[in-house]
């Protein structure tokens, strides 16, 4: 099987609309979390959110995309254009040799919800383009149409693990030789009033800000955004002089088979072990874990338990952090945004800090990073654990020419 590397990346996130800005704010610890806007006072039990501010769709959309691309698809279009430009992928491969595998769990809520509200309150017709705009796979289709990608293309919807599942499946397709190259990741823009009210009713959103693994953590911070990467066989990338960000070496999946909202640590542990097995690596080789780290009491405890099951005594000092403290929980896009953060950490030799918190001693994770740390770690895991117990873990290695 072939070795697979990341050769280009693009993103639209709460901490940057391109990789350079994302990188700068990630390592500077600059948060994209801000006060909720455009919601009447008293409607929500929380007051902060990690939405993408200042994104100008017209800077990215072609005329043919304007009527069809709602906000989530717009993020996908912008991220794909960045990644494909950085890698030069479509100049190197025929469209039929490239796969597009995206993760989007909520679909085009900003297109569907206003039309549904109008229907129930005013009657009348729904906009004729509501269906193609609201499809979760719309971003995949629009990117393929723009760039002439005619290989395997589809959308994955597994809640908060969507982007990670998409990346892992694309990785396996390239590694096996099913395709020569791929663009993969996740995009999500679900922050409509109905979505916020739905999450509010679950009482898992922080009334302050997300503080993963902190003793005083009080919930997650909802976000949005996108990240897409290009991947191809290492030999081919090196031969054509493509830039290499990192190497993907393993992918593991599991189902808890337990509960819709309460994680069973055995499921996440199985996914991590399967990612390591796929990478032909031992737990002792891992020098960093980019945690799912939502900042909820139950999920952080379950993830800590899973880390102890996989890493044993080493879990206590293993470097761990969750970048959700900066860009929020972008639902189906989170796994892709966090893969980008993890790849940059290995590439730059700097692990992003988890914030100046008092780490919950009950978790027994003394390695949770309060601030950035220089590292010579060669391998990292990035975790994505979704509602319904659907887990995806990706193993990365630092690329050394």
Automatic annotation (TrEMBL):
Ketosynthase family 3 (KS3) domain mapped to chain residues: 1-398
GO biological process: fatty acid biosynthetic process
Localization: Cell inner membrane
Family: Belongs to the thiolase-like superfamily. Beta-ketoacyl-ACP synthases family.
Protein origin, superkingdom: Bacteria
One cellular component (GO) term of this entry: plasma membrane
Keyword terms of this UniProt record: Cell inner membrane, Cell membrane, Membrane, Nodulation, Transferase, Transmembrane, Transmembrane helix
SMART domains (UniProt xref): PKS_KS
Stored InterPro entries: Beta-ketoacyl_synthase, Ketoacyl_synth_AS, Ketoacyl_synth_C, Ketoacyl_synth_N, PKS_Beta-ketoAc_synthase_dom, Thiolase-like
Protein's name in the database: Nodulation protein E
Gene Ontology terms for molecular function: 3-oxoacyl-[acyl-carrier-protein] synthase activity
Gene3D superfamilies, per the entry: 3.40.47.10
Function in brief: Proposed to synthesize NOD factor fatty acyl chain. Involved in the synthesis of a highly unsaturated fatty acid moiety, which forms part of a lipo-oligosaccharide that is responsible for host specificity.
PROSITE patterns per UniProt: KS3_1 (PS00606), KS3_2 (PS52004)
